[in-house]
Design brief:
7-stranded mixed beta sheet; globular; about 500 residues; 5-stranded parallel beta sheet; alpha+beta; binds flavin-adenine dinucleotide
Length: about 500
C-alpha cells in the first residue's frame, strides 16, 4: 500500500484527492490523506446566502472556454446545475474622470475589432484611435530578430501596439480585476500567451482578432456564455467534491509545519507529530509550499518563494431592488482615478439565481498589488470607503440591507516577467526531488479551471511515479500555455 499526502484543501487539493479516490476505488493500492490548515475545505471558494442573495466571497465563476471545471462538474453529476452568464446584458464600464464609459462593442479583451464603436467611444483620445487604425498594418514579427520570443510585460506589448493610454484605461484595470496585478509587472507569455503567439504570426493584434472572429463565425457550434457558474454558488462544487473524497482521509484544522525527505519518501510534520508518506502533493500557494520544503528542497523553495502574491478583498452589498443603477455587468476602475475600489460587479445582472426580484446585489473589489495596505483596514473602514466611493461614482446613497467583507491575504499569484523560465527551473529541480509535486494557482493559470487541472494532473503524476499507471504521464508540468486569456471580472 502506497501512501500519498495532499497538503492544502482548496479546489486544487480537493481535485487531486478526487482523482486519487477514483483510482483507489478502481483497485489501486493507495492510501491518501488530505491536510487542510483551516476548519473548512474549499480555500478561497466560499458562498454565503444573505437576505435571499447568493454572495460569493471568492471566485464567482469560471471561464467556459477552459473545460476542466465544467468537465469535473460533469463527472460529479452536477452538469445540469451549471449556469451561464447573461451575456445579452453584458456591458462593462470603465471609470474615466469619475464617469462610467461603456467599453466599446467589438473589443476582444483589449483589442478593438469594430471600427465605428471604437471611433465613437469617448474612452480613447483621438491619438489613441489613430494608433489603433495604424496598428492594423503592423507586419508579422521578424522571427530571426534576437528579441523574438523574449518575455516582456503586458504593458510593454500593449503600449507598443496602442500606446500608454490603452495600458492605463484598459489593460491595467482588466488585469487588476483578474489578477489583482499590474500590466507593468505581469508577463505576457504567462498571462496572455495567445497574444504573444498572435503577435508573432500576424504582427497586428487587430488583424489577428478579426481572423479569429471569422473562424468563430464559421464554427457550427453556437457561442457559449463567457462565464459559467453553479446555480447554488461555487461552494457547491466543493460540497460535492468533498462527498466523493473519503471523509476518513480528510484532516481539517491541521496545518502542516514542514515536510522532510526520507529514504522511503517524505515525513509530513504537524504540531502533533509526523506521518510517513511515499509521495506528497503540495496544493498550496507557492509561498506556503516554499515554507514547508525550506530545508528539504531549498533551491525549489527559493524559486517558489520568489513568485509574488497579491491580496484581495471582496465586499458583497445587498440593496433593495429599487435603487437606480446603469445596466450591464459592472465597472472597472483605472489606477489614474485614485480610488480604492478596483471593480464593482452588478451581480444580479451578471448571473441568474443570484438575487431575488426584490433585491440588488453588488460585489466590490479592493486590494491588489498596489494596495496591500487595504488588508489592514477594519471591516467598518472598508465598508465606509466602499459606500463613499459608490456614492461618488453611482450616486448610491442608500444604506445596504446587508453587507459582507471577505479578506484573502496573498491569494492571487502574480506571474511576473520570466515566470515561465522560473517554472522550467522548478521542473528541472523537481527531477532531483522525486515523489513531490505541485498544484494550485501559482503556476499555469490562476483561475478555478486551471487549479482543477493542476490538482488532477498532480495526482496522476504521482500515481505514475508510484507505478500505478502503465507509464508515467507526460505532463508539461509546470510549464504550460493555458494561462488566463480573458478577464473574469466583472
Ligand atoms: C477574491 C477572488 C476572486 C477570484 N475570482 C475568480 C473567478 O471569478 N474565476 C476564477 O476562475 N478564479 C478566480 N479566482 C482565482 C481562484 O479562485 C483561485 O486561484 C483558486 O481557487 C485557488 O485554488 P487553490 O486550491 O490553488 O488555492 P487555495 O484556495 O488558496 O487553497 C489552498 C489551501 O491550502 C491551505 N493551506 C495553506 N497552508 C497550509 C498548510 N501549511 N497546511 C495545510 N493547509 C494549508 C489553505 O488554508 C487553503 O485552504 C479568484 C480568487 C480570489 C481570491
Amino acid at each position: 500500500m502506497k501512501r500519498i499526502a495532499i497538503i492544502g484543501g482548496g479546489i486544487a487539493g480537493l481535485s487531486a484527492a478526487y482523482e486519487l479516490e477514483k483510482h483507489r476505488q478502481s483497485g489501486a493500492e493507495i492510501d491518501y490523506i488530505l491536510y487542510e490548515a483551516s476548519p473548512r475545505l474549499g480555500g478561497v471558494l466560499q458562498t454565503e446566502r444573505v437576505e435571499g442573495c447568493l454572495i460569493e466571497a471568492g471566485p464567482d465563476s469560471f471561464l467556459t472556454e477552459k473545460p476542466w471545471a465544467s468537465d469535473l462538474c460533469g463527472e460529479l453529476g452536477i452538469a445540469s446545475e451549471i449556469i451561464g452568464s447573461n451575456d445579452a446584458a453584458r456591458k462593462t464600464y470603465i471609470l474615466l474622470n469619475n464617469r462610467l464609459i461603456p467599453m466599446p462593442d467589438g473589443l476582444m479583451f483589449l483589442v478593438p475589432t469594430q471600427i465605428l464603436p471604437t471611433i465613437l467611444s469617448p474612452l480613447f483620445s483621438r491619438s489613441t484611435k489613430f494608433r489603433m487604425a495604424r496598428e492594423y498594418f503592423y507586419p508579422p514579427h521578424d522571427v530571426t530578430s534576437p528579441t523574438h520570443g523574449e518575455d516582456e510585460t503586458v504593458a510593454a506589448l500593449v503600449e507598443r501596439h496602442y500606446g500608454r493610454e490603452m495600458v492605463e484605461r484598459l489593460a491595467d484595470p482588466l488585469l487588476s480585476g483578474v489578477y489583482g496585478g499590474e500590466a507593468d509587472q505581469l508577463s505576457v507569455r504567462a498571462v496572455l500567451p495567445r497574444f504573444a503567439d498572435l503577435e508573432a504570426k500576424y504582427g497586428s493584434l487587430g488583424r489577428a482578432m478579426l481572423a479569429q472572429k471569422k473562424l468563430n463565425q464559421r464554427s457550427p457550434t453556437p457561442p457559449r456564455p463567457i462565464f459559467s457558474s453553479l446555480r447554488d454558488g461555487m461552494s457547491r462544487l466543493v460540497e460535492v467534491l468533498a462527498t466523493r473524497v473519503n471523509p476518513g482521509r480528510v484532516r481539517t484544522n491541521i496545518p502542516i509545519t514542514e515536510i522532510q525527505r526520507r529514504e522511503y519518501g517524505w515525513l509530513v510534520n504537524t504540531a502533533a507529530g509526523g506521518s510517513s508518506f511515499d509521495a506528497v502533493i503540495l496544493a498550496l500557494p507557492t509561498q506556503a509550499a516554499a515554507q514547508l520544503i525550506r530545508h528539504s528542497a531549498p533551491a525549489v523553495a527559493q524559486e517558489l518563494a520568489e513568485i509574488r502574491y497579491s491580496s484581495s478583498i471582496t465586499v458583497g452589498l445587498v440593496y433593495d431592488a429599487n435603487i437606480q443603477l446603469p445596466e450591464g455587468f459592472g465597472f472597472l476602475v483605472p489606477r489614474t482615478e485614485n480610488r480604492r475600489m478596483l471593480a464593482c460587479t452588478f451581480v444580479h445582472n451578471k448571473f441568474p439565481h443570484r438575487a431575488p426580484e426584490n433585491r440588488t446585489l453588488l460585489r466590490c473589489f479592493l486590494g491588489g498589488s498596489r494596495d496591500e495596505a487595504a488588508l489592514s483596514l477594519s471591516t467598518d473602514e472598508i465598508l465606509t470607503t466602499v459606500r463613499r466611493e459608490l456614492d461618488e461614482i453611482l450616486d448610491l446613497t442608500d444604506a445596504p440591507l446587508a453587507a459582507r467583507v471577505y479578506k484573502w491575504p496573498s491569494s492571487m499569484a502574480q506571474y511576473s516577467v520570466g515566470h515561465l523560465d522560473r517554472l522550467e527551473r522548478i521542473r528541472q529541480l523537481l527531477q532531483e526531488t522525486p515523489r513531490l509535486t505541485l498544484a494550485g494557482n501559482g503556476y499555469r493559470g490562476i483561475g478555478v479551471p486551471d487549479c482543477v487541472r493542476t490538482g488532477r494532473e498532480a495526482a496522476t503524476q504521482m500515481l505514475g511515479y508510484l507505478g500505478f499507471l502503465a507509464e508515467t504521464p507526460r505532463i508539461e508540468d509546470p510549464v504550460g500555455t493555458a494561462a488566463l486569456g480573458r478577464p473574469a471580472l466583472p
